[in-house]
Design goal:
Radius of gyration of chain A: 23 Å
Largest sheet of chain B: 2 strands, antiparallel
Order of helices and strands of chain B: HHHEEHHHHHHHHHHHHH
CATH superfamily of the largest domain in chain B: MetI-like
Number of helices of chain B: 16
Helix content of chain B: over 70%
Strand content of chain A: under 5%
Structural class of chain A: mainly alpha
CATH topology of the largest domain in chain B: MetI-like fold
Strand content of chain B: under 5%
Order of helices and strands of chain A: HHHHHHHHHHHHHH
CATH class of the largest domain in chain B: Mainly Alpha
Number of strands of chain B: 2
CATH architecture of the largest domain in chain B: Orthogonal Bundle
Structural class of chain B: mainly alpha
Oligomer: heterodimer
Number of strands of chain A: 0
Amino acid sequence: MSDVAIGGGQPLRDLVPGGQPLPDAGAAAEAGIVGRRSVVRRLLRQRSAVVGLVLLGFLLLVALLADVLATHDPIQVLLGVEPGMRPRTPPCIHLLGCAPDQAQHILGSDGNGRDEYSRLLFGTRVSLFVGFVTVFGAILIGTVIGAVAGYAGGRTDNILMRLMDMLLAFPALLLALVIVTVLGKGLINAMIAVAIVSIPIYARVMRAAVLSVRELDYVTAARAMGDSSVGILLRRVIPNSLTPLIVQATLGIGGAVLEVAALSFLGLAAQPPTAEWGTMIGNERNQLFTAPWLIIAPGIALTITVLAFNLLGDGLRDALDPRLSQ
Amino acid sequence: MIQFILRRLLISIPVVFGVVFIVFVLSRIVPGDPCAAALGERANPRSCEAFNARIGLDKPIMPFLIKDGTSYGFTGDPSSVANNQFVVYLSALAGGDLGTSVKHGRPVTQLLFERMPTTIELTFYALLFAIIVGVGLGIIAASRHNSKRDVLSMMFANLGVSIPVFVLGLMLAYLFGVLLKDTFFSLPPSGRLTSGLRPQSIAQVWGLTDLTGPPRGILDFVSNMYTINGLVTGQFGLLVDALRHLILPAIALGTIPMAIIARMTRSSLLDVLGREDVRTAEAKGLRPRVVLLPHGLRNALLPVVTVIGLSVASLLSGAVLTETIFGLTGIGLTVFESISARDYVVIQGLALLVALIYVVVNLITDVSYGFLDPRVRVT
């Protein structure tokens, strides 16, 4: 059943079957002990992981070099600043035969006369930031809940996991929508909402991993040597449960990017003039028939980003799960 | 087995209660004054006092918890245990009352009843697309493991799971509504029916217009699913037009589940094909197609069925985006509209409804797990 958790985005979260621990958490936790070098080698043998890594490297490079690669300020409105500037001018590249007396805009301009290409580049920064920070926040809270539940067991476990069940009882995007309504519009609030929505995934992964590691000999040994519960949890259990968490997080980043972009598209997350892909598509969606490039370009960028994390996550899972490596 | 189903049902009860509670709490911590939102310019201290008393907002929120203006406080009044907003909310809920929409001025249940058929129809065709294409693609991929066909199908599935619903929807609308306009492949990019086409309800066609009460309600509900309406009443123009309008939204919404089903079918089919009974069938000299379909697929489809059940959830999420893009007045578009209009009563009702659908679907999926895999029943 390990494939239930494949893919990113809403399906990832919504497809965690009710009440079942994620299946390969335990096996992957054991694989984590195998050693890092062989994992890297196995990872590089996965075709999907290599493609994912290359795409991700490219995106990171674009995000880092956005200032250098951009031709214009992504936020500046060029109407009235640049001669002949109109809203939604089509792409104009001099090398490809665009008239030299026209200003060069590689992907044209958006409805407010901003350079679309520069906005696209800076959007990479926003999306990667959103993905990493949101998932990091969700992991931080989710692992604590999962670790406590798995390690304490009994009533604590029951209460915490029933709470997680309640969060999982809402479809991801819908719960995020409701939380953003309560918190108010904005990128940070949307990130908080998406993080809250994905906490249960990490709590479940962590709990399953802790349950499988808890009874291993070296944990028993640590306990026999008088190590405190918290000490065992921090020094023994958590480090050895990281592997399934990393796989889940990689897939989760793609999902977080997707969900925040969807909220932006609906006008609830990043607000203009922020260069965010979902907002860029949402603002121009009624211009589909007159200026399709303003939707297609950020749409492709968004798809590539999510694809990169999904491919890498799939590759990581295959590389770390010893059962699949034969 | 019955014991297993009963246990799962019992576990669902606290979750349902928790969902009701979460929705209630979220609706009470929403910023803004409900009175000002409802009465608009007519809101003043006196009218607000009357308004709050009428809908019970002057009562404590929960036992011992009061809200005074914007600040929360505790009360020692023991009568607040039985007489508070949560109790009022629960008793209204038990009577099937989800409140009244501020924007539409109508009961939320009525609004849901009207708009639900659109969403049901959309989800049905999206799931149909996902299952047919997904299972087909999975079989194609698994029948020649590691071949070009396999790699291509899985690349397609990877792309399908990564493309945002709203990007795919807009691109489909552009391709079929603009680029292919005036060709044979042209499809309408928005709406449920061509404007000007007025569907007759089933009651009208069958001459049951004097029917009233719940039977009429059910009949009108079904009439609102235009493809069923067109089929049973023989309005084939309606059927074709409704189907043409549903193709693009259904593909946009169904692509993510399609990709997941394709991957699941492939991996589970590969799993089964490696088993001994299948190898025996091969050794007996059965043709590959006979081995693949009856022997392989029947066993491999069990986990796929479960994934299909779980996909309903992602369809409900995606419906918000799909309906917004294609201008379909269903539950999803209503969620979006209500958030824009700050119509919290509707959001509250919809969130509750969707969560309950979700819990039921999860329950059915869990139970089907039990049917398919006896080991689950004991855990």
